[in-house]
Amino acid sequence: MKTIYKKLLFLFLLLPFTVLAQSTLSGTVVDKTTGQPIPGVNVNVQGAPNGASTGFDGNYQLSNVKNGSKIVVSFIGYKTETLDYTGQKTLNVSLEEDTNQLKEVVVQVGYGTVKKKDATGSVSQISAKEFNKGINVTPESLISGRIAGVNVITGGAPGAKADIRIRGGSSLSASNEPLIVVDGLPMSNAVPSGSTSILSTIDPNDIESFTVLKDASAAAIYGSRAANGVIVITTKKGTKGGVKVNFNSQVGINTVANTVDVLSADQYRALVNEKGTAAQKALLGTANTDWQKEIFRTALTTNNNISVSGSLFNKLPVRLSVGNVDTPGILRNTSFERTTTSISLNPVLFDNHLKIDVTGNLAFGKNQFQDEGPVISSAIIFDPTQSVYQAGSRYGGYFEWLEANGNVPLLPARNPVARLNQDERRATSTRKWGNIRLDYKFHFFEDLRIVAEAGIDKFDSNGYTRVSTESITGFQPTTFDKGNWTNLGGYTGYTDSRQNKNLNTYFNYTKDLGKFKIDATAGYNYQLFQREGYNSGDVMRPNPPADVTTDPDINLQSYFGRLNLGYDSRYLLTVNYRRDGTSRFSKENRWGNFAGGAFAWNVAEEEFLKDNSTLSSLKLRVGYGTTGQQDIPPAYDYLQRVTLGTLNTQYLFNGVIYRAAKPEGYNKDIKWEDLAEMNVGVDFGFLNDRLTGTLNYFDKKSSDLLAEIPVPDGANIRNQGYSNIGSVRTKGVEFNLQSDIIKNDKLTWNVAVNATYIDQKISDLGTTVPGFQGYITGDVIAGGTGNQVLIHSEGFAPNSFFVFEQLYDANKRPIQGAYADRNGDGAITDADRYKFHKPTADYTFGLFSTLNYKQFDFTMNWRASVGNYIFDNVSSDKGYLQAGLRRDSDLANITTDYFNTGFTTESNSNGTQRNYSDYFVKDASFIKLDNIVLGYTFDKKLLKAATLRFTAGVQNVFVLTKYNGLDPEKFNGIDNNVYPRARTFLFGVNANF
């Protein structure tokens, strides 16, 4: 008994020493080359369950470490370090990049992932560290100019939707927008009234990566919605380890970079005194007003985001993010504000057999709009000799053109400052969307997984337009000269609700059979789109046409499958198939079959190249696939329908008012548009992948094009509608190159460049008649009535300019109305119009440079576009004498292009259109420095608890172009009253705790 007591006493006395022997270890993990801290590194005791991970500052703290333990430090893309613990309190570690692991980058593809080195299709990925720097209000700007074959054109208005095209689009009248998939949820490109775009509701700070599926072999797994390519967005997720906090704050000063060149007040006075009538001269004022300066301003943008990530109970990875951006527009009384909250939960249960991914997002938007086109147009042309205000004006004290008896004239421009201040257009929106993904690996058959995803996206908005009772545009029941004049103003309210439901269920089987690898997927997809809206009409007017609109549901259902086969990581084959059904077509045409296949040869894995440091990677790819297109505005164009008429088509019978019913046009044979695409590519790397690149050649053809075309008289009960006609062929080359030009302990310099060439032509427009030039298309231009200058024509690019060939005098000045008689019939008619250039570029380029020196970093992003043309509708509509001296009752300014042309009248004396001259089609090629950003990082020198990074920069720095209009970059090729892009000076701070 005494012996037992002695042993217990001995153990009790030894206990403090054993506790002391289990110490706490801390330290910092950095990149061996750059010295920058690495967040998310796993630090573990070999063979023990306890572990830790580094925070954003690279620091870690590991408890219960015993003498003699092995400390294992590991992170994706770096070589694992195993170190001995000998009782030290601090252990700092430098990790070296592992070029072999870097080749193992995983990219998102349809319903799964694949290692980048095993991808067979044309797939590009860009991650957070490669995003464009600066104040990125919407996600599209993160990748502008960064990916070959992807063209992103942003707008100038706050929160404006960007137009994205992958390899030039593929359709004439159906949607050319790519499919966007966010965390497994395919999005709808439609947004409710009062909102700007789907992507504008996402905080760019929450995005981890963009993956772009460009060719049909890669995108065919998405079938019906993938004809224009697919953009897969992955948001940031929680990580294991301690709590990490990131705070990001930016301030931007938005300034006006450019305005339209118009006559100054003195120039305009001189013009009126020289060319005007006595009545017009008498209208001249004494002011010197720059109307564009009056409507534009310098505005302050703020962008803040805070995120917390970590692992609850050391079991449940979670990330919570809250962000707010407030962007007043440079056009007065316009603004965009977004507040977002997102949460992601990513538990792994049942011994790694069940993975659950839950994402939830909530976005609140506040928008203030203006009737931008008329307001900016008025500012360009309003008489600069008039003051903004006029004493005694019944319209809020603002100067307005009135008839002699005080009545409101129909035609003159309205005071643009008054329009801004007396029209209130506001909207609020709420978007709730999320996705739940269950990935279960069968316990009894671990090679087989079943994945189920359910997602919903609900987007609601409401807004109003209120017109002041002092506004000249308000409803005035009687004219001023009647003596009982009143101004009731105006008010229109609206609501809009859209919903998108998605369900995916699929099986995935993977098996390694020695050198053979099999990866097979098969499943089902269901998607439903719904919309309901209400518009009150102007309630200040009699009998407002209030209306509730319930759009027909759009239902898409699909069955899909994919098989990946690999042999020894050298030979890779992908085959996929999808059968799609859409409610937009009749039962006979409802289903479409789309398939794709691709083969890749990893030449670098062959014995004659393996471990070659000079040519470190080389992969050859070839692919072919088909996708479909059904996204047209009519929901049920194949049905014979009868609709009720408007208030203007009511009839009175026996004292009862009846609304007329009218049959609608239809096309029972409308069917899928098909796209077939071939892609040949090569991926390469030199010097242990210090220099990497990709070259792709693609050739795609769209057949049975969905196009809105005129209908011959008597052939249908409508003048225009959707039909399947013809084909478009697009060929192109993409090239991108990335290199670490300098890489040492103090200095790194990385440069990435990309280039794209696209040749797109309409190869067939179906049945035509002699003399048929094509289908007139495009936006109606300002000037005249219903004029359009774009055409779809065989043998030419879609949306080619359709104009007259201008003749010039000996001084190379255009002669008004003098056009070439191209058909030689002795008369100038519409038959002499010809196809002349196009809005889309032949070549686009991007360059991104990142320079790091010690704690300094400097980035800049360039873009260039060659071969794109633009129709200068500002000059064609406002650059001739009659535009300023049209009437004796009011005056209007004109653009300085009048001095270049001397054009005087709206119509030519020979009856032709002056604004159809090819003089107004101008070369819009450009080089842009999109942004430059300088940063400095303090490694806990200012605050012990956080790493701080301060930034300063400029966005929209400058543009080099021959085009003398407002901006050479216009998506639809028509430059007309455009909201200008701001030049932004930005300052920011980022803190990692």
Question: How would you summarize the topology of this molecule?
Answer:
Elements: H1 2-21, E1 22-31, E2 42-45, E3 51-53, E4 59-66, E5 70-74, E6 81-84, E7 93-95, H2 99-102, E8 106-109, E9 112-115, E10 123-127, E11 150-153, E12 163-166, E13 179-182, E14 185-186, E15 207-213, H3 216-219, E16 230-235, E17 244-256, H4 265-275, H5 278-282, H6 291-295, E18 299-312, E19 316-328, E20 335-345, E21 348-349, E22 354-369, H7 372-381, H8 416-422, E23 423-441, E24 448-467, E25 490-513, E26 516-535, E27 547-567, E28 571-582, E29 591-602, E30 615-629, E31 642-644, E32 650-653, E33 656-659, E34 661-663, E35 673-686, E36 691-710, E37 720-743, E38 747-764, E39 775-777, E40 790-792, E41 800-803, E42 806-808, E43 814-819, E44 834-835, E45 843-853, E46 856-866, E47 869-872, H9 873-878, H10 881-884, H11 898-901, E48 921-923, E49 926-938, E50 947-961, E51 974-975, E52 982-992
Parallel strand pairs: 1-7, 13-16, 47-51
Antiparallel strand pairs: 1-4, 2-3, 2-5, 5-6, 8-9, 10-15, 11-12, 13-14, 15-16, 17-18, 17-52, 18-19, 19-20, 20-22, 21-22, 22-23, 23-24, 24-25, 25-26, 26-27, 27-28, 28-29, 29-30, 30-35, 31-34, 32-33, 35-36, 36-37, 37-38, 38-45, 39-40, 40-41, 41-44, 42-43, 45-46, 46-49, 47-48, 49-50, 50-52
